[in-house]
Automatic annotation (TrEMBL):
This is TRAM domain-containing protein. Residues 250-262 have a biased composition (Basic and acidic residues). The keyword Coiled coil does not apply. PROSITE patterns: SAM_MT_RNA_M5U, TRAM, TRMA_2. The active site is at 587 (nucleophile). It comes from the Eukaryota. Keywords: Methyltransferase, S-adenosyl-L-methionine, Transferase.
Length: 642
């Protein structure tokens, strides 16, 4: 069956190209000096002078917190307002992990009563309605935003944010303030660790050691082009119903309880976009996502238009009835070694019901190819990934290349350009220039979604390994990279070490890591599949390394962190292999600190030396942190060559 296409054009919105990064729009009349937005992070950083001991002493109380006390709740409360109650509050900060606004209410019992407010930003006064309540915290939705607005409020770049798109959490918050909030969240988490470690007796040595910890300023995006359009992969969902929010600029309505989202009764039979927050059955049609690049957005609109017009031949998948064909549109992008943009279009589908679906998809692929490859827009391939699962995961069991001569993109990373000059003093200039790592990115392989911020994260990791300072003399060093994934860290440090061993559970990730090593002609990095539990961890290292001592151990576990036995296995490494340094990379500082507490407690052979937070995902609550531990002088490492 053939589908003929009308050629009508759809209107799309034009967005302002320049938005304030570090400028606040309004000022709140706050008691005392107004809060100062964080200075834009510079590319060449000087390490912060702030030590862990200073952090312990620093209170998080700031000018915005003071403003909380001036809220309309003049009388201290005995308990939090009931579900359904309306109250005016001032939001003082953002909650770790969720990005919800935090309003602290005065309490007669002296304990802190906390309201978490959805979609509210620091410095904002809001009328809220409580939607759920626990003993000392409650969750609320905004009924009305009160004047004056927050000094940190900025115009969100995309209208879908105002419609309730779940892709971004706080696009309406000044980026400098986002960074300040994330930095203070990491600091508060570490503050707790330092307080716990320095409490009690026999801890004088620990307290003295904390004096030495360097807490680095958060590394954020430095250009507007890095704050928006930074994602190299977006997964859009096809659906048979279009979620139409009740208001274009939507606040939660009084009938909004818990997860229920009111909507206008005007669904169409086709949608391509992102899920509404916490609703996997609702697809908000997206014409332009501010987190991806311009050409990727053009592809999104092009595919949406062509698929909507052929809906009879290419029915969208209904994840309730499990019928339909089109499931996801995944658009990936990369910048290759020559600095050219490369793009991949991957359509995830169910198995076809008949030949007409395959034929219609091929027709679509031809059109996408003509528009974005033949005209020199950088499209490298159009792929189809076929899945039979009922889950919403955009991964196929079988891949078909519909267009293009290869099925993967090439991404070049140059992390040394983000390393602080102090670390590069001994680096021969030619090595500085040459250090480029190429990564092959196929449709189903993992790659960090923000390449520029990934380079900065890799730069912090390189700094933490200590390999750069002695670049010309440390050719004997052995680095072990646990939970190495596709090897991005291993491949990056290989140029500065004698040998690198990456260990990882996923066979396909190890295959990618090996392929990438070959592609980069890196001969001193090996990768092995290993399930890193407490019993196998060092066995895997020793088997592969023929008992060579480890100089630097890098660990980058999943978000949940490590289990206690894995942590203990690392700290209690056999003396022959005991690493001199441990670099703990994490996308969840809360679990990182939990693990570090175990690593540093009591008579630990290690002490914490530095913590470096990195913002990889502007407008979302996520952040990374790189912690570096060093062996104590009296504990000795397996090898003293580092
Ligand atoms: C945060 S990712 C690491 C990403 C990696 N550093 C990279 O840049 O590609 C965590 C990795 O831990 C791996 N993993 C989870 N549990 C594991 C286990 N028990 N043993 C080995 N690897 C495991 C996952 O497969 C995943 O690749």
């Amino acid at each position: 069956m053939h589908c003929t296409l009308p050629t009508t054009r759809l209107p799309f919105i034009t967005l302002p190209s320049r938005l304030p990064l570090y400028r606040s729009t309004h000022r709140l009349p706050l008691p005392g000096p107004p809060p100062t937005p964080a200075a834009p992070p510079s590319m060449s950083r000087t390490p912060s002078k702030r030590t862990a001991a200073e952090l312990v002493a620093t209170s998080r109380h700031n000018a915005v917190d003071e403003a909380t006390d001036q809220s309309t709740l003049a009388q201290p409360l005995e308990r939090l307002p009931k579900r359904g109650a309306t109250v005016d509050v001032q939001v003082s900060s953002l909650a770790y992990g969720t990005g919800l606004g935090v309003a602290r209410l005065p309490s007669s019992a002296g304990e802190s009563l906390v309201l978490f407010v959805r979609r509210a930003i620091p410095g904002e006064r809001v009328r809220v309605r409580v939607v759920s309540r626990r003993r000392n915290f409650a969750e609320a939705v905004v009924v009305e935003r009160l004047e004056p607005s927050s000094p940190f409020a900025v115009a969100p770049r995309c209208r879908h944010f105002l419609e309730g798109c779940g892709g971004c959490t706080f696009q309406n918050l000044l980026y400098a303030k986002q960074l300040e909030e994330k930095e203070s969240q990491v600091r508060a988490i570490y503050q707790g660790l330092f307080q716990r470690l320095s409490a009690g007796d026999a801890r004088a040595a620990t307290a003295a050691a904390l004096e030495q910890v360097r807490f680095e300023p958060i590394v954020g995006a430095t250009e507007l082009s890095e704050v928006y359009g930074y994602r190299n992969k977006m997964e859009f969902t096809f659906g048979p119903r279009r979620w139409i929010p009740a208001n274009t600029v939507r606040e939660e309505s009084p009938s909004d309880h818990g997860d229920h989202q009111p909507e206008a009764p005007a669904p169409t039979d086709f949608a391509l976009g992102l899920h509404a927050p916490r609703r996997y059955d609702k697809v908000l049609a997206i014409e332009d996502c501010a987190l991806q690049g311009d050409v990727a957005n053009e592809i999104l609109r092009f595919v949406e238009r062509r698929c909507r017009q052929r809906v009879a031949c290419l029915p969208p998948y209904d994840n309730a009835a499990h019928t339909g064909f089109l499931r996801n549109l995944v658009i990936r992008s990369a910048v290759n070694a020559a600095g050219e943009r490369e793009l991949m279009v991957n359509v995830v589908t169910s198995p076809p019901d008949g030949p007409h679906e395959d034929e219609a998809l091929r027709q679509l692929a031809d059109e996408v190819w003509e528009a974005f490859a033949e005209s020199g827009r950088g499209l490298v391939c159009v792929l189809q990934n076929i899945t039979t699962t009922k889950s919403g995961v955009a991964v196929g069991e079988r891949e078909v290349r519909l267009k293009g001569s290869r099925s993967a993109l090439e991404q070049a990373l140059r992390p040394l350009r983000w390393v602080a000059p102090a670390y590069l003093r001994n680096m021969p200039p030619e090595r500085l220039q040459q250090h480029t790592v190429l990564y092959r990115i196929s449709a189903n392989s993992f790659f960090q979604p923000n390449p520029v911020q990934s380079e900065k994260l890799l730069a912090r990791i390189l700094e933490a390994t200590g390999l750069l300072e002695t670049a010309s003399s440390n050719r004997q060093t052995f680095v072990v990279d646990l939970f190495c994934g596709t090897g991005s860290i291993s491949l990056c440090v290989a140029a500065f070490a004698a040998r690198v061993l990456g260990l990882e559970l996923s066979e396909s990730a190890v295959a990618d890591a090996r392929a990438n090593a070959e592609r980069n002609r890196i001969v001193n990095a090996e990768f092995a599949v290993a399930n890193l539990d407490h019993e196998t961890l060092w066995k895997a290292v020793q088997t592969a390394s023929i008992s060579q001592a480890v100089d630097v151990l890098v660990v980058d576990p999943p978000r949940a962190g490590m289990n206690p036995r894995q942590v203990r296995a690392i700290v209690e490494a056999p003396a022959a292999v005991r690493p001199r340094r441990i670099v703990y990379v994490s996308c969840n500082p809360a679990t990182q600190v939990r693990d570090l507490e175990m690593m540093l407690a009591g008579d630990s052979p290690y002490r914490l030396r530095s913590v470096a937070p990195v913002d990889q995902f502007p407008h979302t609550p996520h952040m990374e942190a790189v912690a570096m531990l060093e062996i104590r002088d009296d504990k000795g490492a397996g090898n003293a060559s580092a």
